[in-house]
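Now for a concrete sample entry.
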Amino acid sequence: MNRLSRIFPKVDPFSLQTRLTIGVATFSALGLASLASWTSWKMQEILIDSHKENIKQIALRLPRDIEIYNDMLPVEIALQKAIDNRSDSNILLWVKSVDAKIIAKSTNFNLVSPSHVTELTSLSKMPITAEVNLINGRYFILYGEELKLKGRYLGKLSIVKDITNDQTMFIAMVKSLTVASILVIIIISLIIAIYIQRSLQPLRHISQMTAAIKPENLAETKVDLSNAPSEVKDLAKTVNMMLSRLSQAWEKERQFTSNISHELRTPLTIIYGYLQSMLRRKQNLTEIQLEVLETAASETENTIHILEELLDLARADSGYLRFNLGTYRINDLVNEAVEMAVKNSSRQIEIEVESDPIMVKVDHQYFIQVLLNLIDNGVKYSDPDTKITIKLKRSENKGIIQVCDRGHGITLQHQSRIFDRFYRIDEARTRSAGSTGLGLSIVKTLVEGMGGNVTVSSQVGEGSVFTVSLPRLPDNTSDN
């Protein structure tokens, strides 16, 4: 059972393996079934034809036998003598006169009961060509023709041959052949399935390797199938070329993001500083000038914030994002993040603790950034008169933080992409709310970098719940 489960781990009705197996097995089954049927039909034909030929020979030679015996005996005795000479235990002959009376009949036909003989001899019409009939559960070949002697009509000759034994043996042989054919078809189907499964193993290997590819290991990933068929080797070569081009494109994009972020952050910081300096001298500015400078300073600050997030993502992609992990109580970190969030927002933020202090190993700075991003996301996408709730829970080996809002909610269509970079559900509303589309992507990168994961569950019109799960340390662990 275990071996079969390893060979056939799961049957996918739409897979290439299943389709090939069913197709080849079906054609093999049809071929074997057709061959078995043709063989059975041909053997039946040969068997019946041999019996028919035997009856025809009897009908052909009987008049000559009668003529020979008639030279020495009266015609009635000669007729009976010839019939007994040509009949045996499974061949019955009789001759009926014009008035349908039997004038001669085989005396040594003893395989069937008298009732069968009576029923056979009472048949009013016999076929002029030999044919097989089933009478009372037994198989007979029937034949009839006119019997003449030197041009004189003697009567109607009827010949019956009992082939029940041969037919029964043939039917038993056909049943055995059918069972054997079914077993052969099953065995062949299993062999075909195993062969196809092994033949497709290189393709499955390519699929597994490509499924495990991540942006950070594109350059090192290579599909190597030395023992695969030539066509699969060509496919692997094409996949390797594609991976190489993707790696180059990813590296160029990452390098461009990093470079442009570095190059733009310094001049924008300088510009922001000049704008702030001018705003501090607002007594010398007109109302319109003050409004323009405030708008420019705000947009510059937002742009610097975007560049900093891009730099964080670029460092994470390059593996240069370093985590200074330490042991902390989630409760303390959440309180600290909430205090910072309240200073920048008038929104009510509530903390619900369902367990004792939870110890985790995280980077203090990045963890606070994760919470602030999630709180800021809830503030931006919920009505001002609703509160943000942070719930602290524990599972068997996880510390769980849930940031809940009563906002507009996220449809299932968008939930799968909510953590993608620059992904916005509503362009107009997110821009007006100051969203860059990078906050949740930063959250996912930082949480996974600390060994945890983040998910979202949401219902339209009821709000969203972002859940951060981190490995939990034993309760007796001392914190920093």
User: Anything to note?
Assistant: The chain has three domains: 1-199, 230-318, 325-471. The first strand starts at residue 91 and ends at 96. The two ends are 54 Å apart (CA to CA). The chain is about 55% helix and 15% strand.
